[in-house]
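ok so i was messing around last nite and threw this chain in just to see what happens. nothing serious, just curious
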Amino acid sequence: MRTTLRTRTTRTTRTTRTTRTTRTTRRALTTLTTPGTRSPRGSRRAAVALAAVCALALAGCGDGDGGGGGPEPGKDTGTGAASVRLPKLDGQKVQVVAVWTGPEQQAFTKVLDEFEKRTGAEVAYVPTQDAMLNYIGTKIAGGAPPDVAMLQQVGALKQAVERKWARPVGPEARAQLAKNYSKGWQDLGAVDGTPYGVYFKAANKSLIWYNTAVFENAGVSEPKTWKELLSTAETVSASGVTPFSIGGADGWTLTDWFENVYLSQAGPEKYDRLARHEIPWTDPSVARALTTLADVFGKPNLIAGGAAGALQTEFPASVTQTFTGGDAPKAGMVFEGDFVSINIAQTEAKVGTDAKAFPFPAVGAEAPVVTGGDVAVALTDKPAAQALLTFLASPDAARIWAGEGGFLSPNKAMDPAAYPNDVQREIGKALVAAGDDFRFDMSDQMPQSFGGTPGKGEWKALQDFLKNPKDVAGTQARLEADAAKAYQGKS
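result:
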């Protein structure tokens, strides 16, 4: 019987990001190329066009390989026809760690329940804090590593491999990856050509969600450029509602703000170079992006509670306070990924009517589209750990969470009909249609100590910047100092 072990957590929905991810969607679709590759300009335009399709949807509303026993492919296990054969694992125990809590944990629990049902294994789920590598390191030092970890950062995956914690993906899971994932997603889960991870959950992180009643009362429409966004915000403010809700207590939301501005303004090549620290954070392109961010961060009247209030607001509350309060919510808009729909579902607002979304406006020549995801990695040699990776790489596992909502799958073999509504269905289709033409969340590509640790590195520097957006040069200096240290130590 699956059990849940509880630890202190810092999120309630990255994936993710708790969704950041998750670091969840940003994540309407992904823009960019896989880290280290470049996307032709035409392909990038195609991705942006697909993002527009997602926005319109928001406004409007296989086969498997593998050995061992388990149910035959095609057998109905309660979640639809099985496409992958799993081994019998009666009595084996497997512990899984991830940042998901609240509704996300409930949805993932249903995925694990199905794995138990089909294999006979017993799964224990442990929700952890954002700094996953720190937790894993402590458990390994104590001789009790978790069997599978859902990591939120490409950088964290690489570090887990460098520290010899991660185990390569087994042949059955590799077969599922080859059949069900584009090369871009396979490459993201590989280190030096060897596959180590399965990207189970993706996120579109280039959406701004808005309260339709607020926009109607203010007489504004969806902006398409940064200048139009600022004008819209001022009009909403004049109507009596604070424009933006920002979950600044969770530093990852601020990195997403920066990344969308930087990608659109500086372009994909500079984005890739900054992600690899091939250019310093003192580069003029960073100063330009921070100065642009200050158009919002530097105006307390545009932020619910001002900067001080935003720094005390966690991501889930930043969403719910935008869609509660009737005609007088605390804010009219909130920026974040597709996973925002999970938190909207905790209010009386309905996506497609009370709550709609538009793509993050173009700051430069083209609108940005940033994606992220959660990657499953085996940390022990247990057969049950590899079997779980095989299951997570199959459409069988993806469609379970897809049906719960607040989830995007990069698995191209999953039937889009599994999504609960047309909004998520269209976003999911566009994600798969993008193929390899996407970029991944920048902070998730960096060493965890810089790009993924609460109270440190980029998260802390941008929280301080939100507090004092006039200090562009000082913020750059702190970012560069912390980045240089992190990349040197890869910690």
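not much to say yet. DSSP finds 20 helices and twelve strands in the chain.
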